[in-house]
Amino acid sequence: MTIFPAIDIRGGQCVRLLKGDFAQETVFSDDPAAMARQWQAQGARYLHLVDLDGARAGHSVNLPTVEAILDAVDIPVELGGGIRTLANIEQVLSLGVQRVILGSVAVRDPGLVAAACAKYGERIVVGIDAKDGIVAVDGWGVSGDVEVVALAQKMRAAGVRHIIYTDISRDGTLAGVNVEATARLARESGVGVVASGGVKSVDDIRALLPYAKDGIEGVIVGKSIYMGTLDLPAALAIAAKGD
Questions:
Q1: Does residue 132 have an active-site annotation?
Q2: Are β-strands 77-80 and 47-51 bridged in parallel, bridged antiparallel, or unpaired?
Q3: Of 1, 34, 68, 145, whose CB count within 10 A is highest?
């Protein structure tokens, strides 16, 4: 199971939001590249980046910060946040980003997702963010009027092989990951799923491991590593051993 330290970028800073609320923001660093180096030094093998300004704007905004992170580390990174056109996908991948995460566009233009998968294969990931089982779009501020599993199944048909599932009600709360909903999504969609939202400690990592057989292939850790409730090297060791 892969553990992805998260770096959420807003205004060039490393921040965390509470339940996706831009009004409830905590700034953890004014140097996201330094944070990236820190997580790599602690053993991370993949980074998860989110352009929060991009999610609101509908196109990438913080690419200079992303480039600084790419220059600072030699592990792969994935990037999401407002990427909604093939041109923007190509722009991001050309910088050296390994995987692009498509969110709102998966609801509004599944044909674009299919075209992107046909061109870039597994470098295309879909992020499904949900409140009470219903997909949210546009930086989590709007209901997408579609159920999570239904969207995941549609994305599988479009060629998607990896999904990031975020339970918005838990994101940034340290309330524990939604294991049940994540495992159900993996089982019923037939797509590899990365869990996100609510991770507090290594207990959450242990809770997810038994469901690797169902298709849970990773977990994103954010506030927990910034607040110190989760020890990243310990979590990586547990995930590597599978126990």
A1: no
A2: parallel
A3: 1
